[in-house]
Design brief:
mainly beta; 6% helix; 4-stranded antiparallel beta sheet; Lipocalin; 2 domains; 354 residues; 3 helices
Length: 354
């Protein structure tokens, strides 16, 4: 499943995983947001995605350049927004709606759709995940009083988290107390869901938190110690809970209390870590041991100037695709790496044989 959202149209496309052939595509009303941190999910025969809606303008176009997401009026009087808005100031169009879509996996027909705009406006900075046959959704409405007044949002709601039946879209429970706060999706494990984000949740404080909720009813299990931010996703393994922070210290949390019990002080940007316990794998092939309080145990070579992506572990290899340089790297580790010489040695040997 590949969502492709743009200025003129938004499409959900289904591809054959073996051949890449497109099986179907279906339009959806969606913003071309760059800040959604999750892929579509599939439950049974239903493919699911979440998005926002509303009229947007390309950033940099005449009469429609928006600085830090602030809206401006076009020649015909319409208010427009840039889809590349600032994460710390998430303004939305007046006609924005938080939406979730469910498609038939075989045909691409919309089976169900849910609109949560009765609770507030937002939907771009949202997340979804599946756990124990249930669908979980969370979105951020923003924290500015002036924003809520101008958008007509209920003053008491800064965000929403909901549990749904993935086959029908029926809502099981909702809460406005706990929600992602932009640039983060939600994750789940062992009857609990975990929520983080980039922004402060309410006015009057600079603190950010990770929230752990009971998946049965959305009640709070614990609220973490204050953190700089919890970016992309709160990663939950059998032993460790980890979240990255944008240009701050990453954190390791106690599973039962949410207390910060360790930190990763390497000052990453929006790196997407992969957890392979006890290691997290980050930018430029960094390998960090969470069991040793975030010690960097292996790194490099540094093949990229960006930190907005990380590594993937599959079939006994570590794969890393760089963003800025275009390199694709495959690494071995553990026992498999002992019999494999460095690539420069193999290259030199191959050249001498030629």
């Amino acid at each position: 499943m590949v969502p492709q959202a743009g200025m003129k149209q938004s499409l959900m496309r289904c591809l054959d995983a073996e051949t890449g052939k497109m099986l179907w595509e279906s339009p959806f009303t969606g913003s071309p947001s760059w800040s959604r941190q999750f892929p579509p999910v599939v439950s049974g025969n239903i493919a699911i995605y979440a998005s926002g809606s509303g009229q947007y303008a390309a950033q940099g176009t005449e009469k429609a350049y928006i600085f830090k997401g602030q809206p401006v009026a076009t020649d015909d009087g319409r208010e427009v927004m840039s889809w590349i808005y600032s994460n710390d100031n998430p303004f939305y169009p007046k006609d924005n709606k938080p939406l979730i879509w469910g498609w038939d996996l075989e045909t691409g027909k919309v089976v169900w759709q849910r609109d949560f705009s009765e609770y507030g406006r937002g939907g771009n900075d949202c997340g979804i995940c599946l756990l124990d046959g249930k669908l979980f959704y969370s979105t951020f409405f923003g924290y500015s009083s002036s924003l809520r007044q101008r958008r007509g949002l209920p003053v008491e709601n800064n965000g929403l988290t909901a549990c749904l039946d993935p086959q029908t879209g029926d809502v099981i429970w909702t809460t406005n107390k706990y929600y992602v706060t932009a640039k983060c999706t939600l994750s789940s494990r062992d009857g609990r869901i975990y929520i983080g984000g980039f922004n402060r949740a309410t006015e009057g404080t600079d603190d950010r938190f990770v929230w752990c909720l009971d998946a049965k009813d959305g009640s709070l299990v614990w609220k973490s110690d204050p953190v700089t931010s919890a970016l992309n996703v709160v990663t939950v393994g059998p032993k460790f809970i980890f979240s990255n922070a944008l240009r701050g210290r990453g954190n390791i949390f106690d599973r039962e209390t949410g207390s910060v019990i360790g930190t990763v002080g390497h000052n990453y940007a929006c790196c997407r870590f992969t957890l392979s316990e006890p290691y997290v794998l980050g930018a430029n092939m960094d390998m960090i041991d969470l069991s040793q309080d975030g010690k960097l145990v292996s790194t490099g070579p540094a093949i990229d100037s960006r930190e907005c992506l990380g590594a993937v572990v599959s079939n006994g290899r570590i794969f890393y695709a760089s963003q800025a340089s275009g390199f694709l790297v495959s690494q071995t580790y553990g026992e498999a790496s002992k019999g494999l010489p460095p690539v420069w040695s193999r290259t030199a040997k191959a050249e001498s044989n030629d």
